[in-house]
Amino acid sequence: MSAGVGVDLENLWIRFGDFVAVRDANVNINGGDFFSFLGPSGCGKTTILRAVSGFLEPSEGKVLIGGKDMRGIGPNKRPTALIFQNLALFPLMKVWENITFSLEISGASAKERRKRADELLDMIALPDQGDKLPSELSGGQRQRVAIARALCAEPDVLLLDEPLSALDLKLRQHMRTELREIQKRVGITFIYITHDQGEALTMSDNIAVMRAGVIDQIADGKTIYNDPNTAFAASFVGENNVFRGKIKQIMGNEALISTNRSGELVARISTANQGKLAVGDDAMMFIRPEAFAIASDGASGDHFVTARVNHEEFEGNVFNIFTEGDGGKEIKVSLPNLGQSFDDHTGQNITLEYETRNAVLVPAGELAAE
Amino acid sequence: MNNSFLRVSIWVYLVIFFLYLLGPLVIMSVTAFNSSAFPRMTPWECLTFQWFGELFQDQRILNGIKNSLIIGAGTVVLSVAMGLAGALMLTQIWPKLRATYYTIIIAPILIPGVVLGISTLVFWDRINRMLGLGADSFLSNGIFLTVIGQSTFIASYCMLVLVARLQRYDVALTEAALDLGATHAQAFRKILLPFMRPAIASAAVLAFLASFENYNTTTFTFGEYPTLTIELAQKVRYGITPAISALAFIIVALTVFFALLNEAKLKRQELVAAARKSATVEELAGKVKLPSLFAGNMAAVLLVVFAVATITVVGTATAYNPGQCIANVKEQKRLEAEQRIQELRKQREEQRKKREAEEAEQGGAQQSTPKPSNNSGFGNVFAPNTLGGDAEEESSDTETPPSNNGGFGGVFDPNSLQTDQ
């Protein structure tokens, strides 16, 4: 794989009037990476993409592509290609004309264009569909045509703005693997925007988690999932149970917190916050539903939680137990279905057990909206 | 029961409605083929095509059509360009200003055409003088002024048509083109313009028709280039001939023709699109056999019927000679006219006789009184009777009786009654 062209954002600020869409973003994207911006809608991730593609000039800071400052360079002069959320295929052009639009601009002959279109159509597994109109294709086919059109321009960086959001679930999952494969084949940098953590986790080399214009964490998928920096990152990526409390004691990388309703519990301080938390600070402890196990009755200690079961549900691969939790929120426990029998605990108190490495402690902060 | 009554009344309503809409057109079209010198449907005289011939020999009408076409073309170009610019501006402008901008740009439609005409004339005359140009300069040219004057409000119509389409345009398409390396000009030409083409065509047709039929603005600006409407209005002042009906018929026929043509084309596109959608990949690759023009296309069939009818009519017109019929009608008219003259004469005769009889009765009582009618101050010097003698008067009287050759042998003549006694 070629090294590819990297993209760097340095102290990037983007304002619309008084509204700050992006606040002091610093991102280094390596050449050839599949990089995702993950965040809820309205968090500024599309704004960053438009700044990279050149439709928007940053208010402050720099966008560097391949180390070159892009200020003042229009979208048609940047080595980027953008795949729009609604794809923006040209409705009046046939598929092959759509794909080779960039060649038409550079003055290639119709014969050359046709040849290149056929190559790209083969690559996206749509041979012989070149004479159709975009409206005559299915959603997934249109998706692939949009990718081929962007690749035809031979960009150094491909930008994708939630391109899968309009597809149905099955197709979306299929396109994830396909996108990842195309990226590996062409070896250029992909910058991917999504609010779907599943998409981000499965495809990306690195992920930036964004909240209201601020980048909370940049790391690979495993780190984001297992070792979140902030309460937002912990609650936005995947399902998580939160326990609010105050830090009572710090023991190296672990801490004892007195929670509001579950007594004193022990947790691991997340890597980025080690050394930054002090006794008496408000903190949040996060434990994934699948990290709990049911303990024998009467067990107690600093890694046991006792709670009353509200209701239960059987999901096939897992069995979910919802118990009373902190601040009106339920604690969710997912037990893998390994063929064992499940007792009905509704209305009873149960004791849950967790391992310290699965309980992550971060400073108290804003949670992601449900 | 009630339902069928409702259905019948709907049909009755439809008939009345279409009579109201199309009746005048039908009647006028028919008058174009009647040889009567005044455009009328009854009495039907002879089938004739002479009014078409006359129409095409009328230099003023032909000149008017020519001017109308030139001005129409100019107005189309100017109005569509201005309308497109206005429409683009409307989508780009700062949202808070949009309502105000829209009002301003729509205003010319609400201003009376007369006002637009006068203001165009005055404004450009002023500019002309400011530049120190003569009365024969380009700026006071009738065609220039009319195009400018008409475009002031026709551009607004065009803008309305174009805005409707532009609102469905996805700006992301332009951005996509830019992103793929196109310049703004290329994105406009290759993406936006093709998208706008149908609306531009509609706007152009609308602009041309509006220009062609315009009278009240043009009447101030036409200068030495009267358009067709101006010429017609001037002609009608001196009485109308069926040649104008013939012109109207041609316009109606052309309208029907183009409407059918357009309909047939649209229908065909629809059919082709449907065929493409259901076609498989191999069929498309092998250039699928598209449905022929006429399959399931009513408008196309009608169009062909219409074209055949036109050719037949034109063919007949060149071969047909209504000369004999017209001669017959003329002869008949001459006879009718003669008869009417004689009837008139007879009436006059009767009145004269009656008066004479009355005078004879009264004559015994007051013979000395002069003639009561000639009581003007000039003492009868201008009266024709005073020039000739009584004898002449008498001779003319004696001449009239033989003209009493009515069919009834003078049985109703009161004089004959008297003589019999």
From TrEMBL, chain A:
Which GO terms fall under molecular function for this chain's record? ABC-type transporter activity; ATP binding; ATP hydrolysis activity
Give the EC number.
Answer: 3.6.3.31
Please tell me whether the keyword Zinc-finger is annotated for this protein: no
A single GO cellular-component term from the record reads: ATP-binding cassette (ABC) transporter complex
Enumerate the spans annotated as ABC transporter domain: 7-237
Q: Which SUPFAM superfamilies match?
A: MOP-like, P-loop containing nucleoside triphosphate hydrolases
Alphabetized InterPro entries for the sequence = AAA+_ATPase, ABC_SmlMolc_Importer, ABC_transporter-like_ATP-bd, ABC_transporter-like_CS, Mo/tungstate-bd_C_term_dom, P-loop_NTPase, Transp-assoc_OB_typ2
A Pfam family of the record is: ABC_tran
Q: Give the keywords, sorted.
A: ATP-binding, Hydrolase, Nucleotide-binding, Transport
Q: Which family does it belong to?
A: Belongs to the ABC transporter superfamily.
Know the name of this protein?
A: Spermidine/putrescine import ATP-binding protein PotA
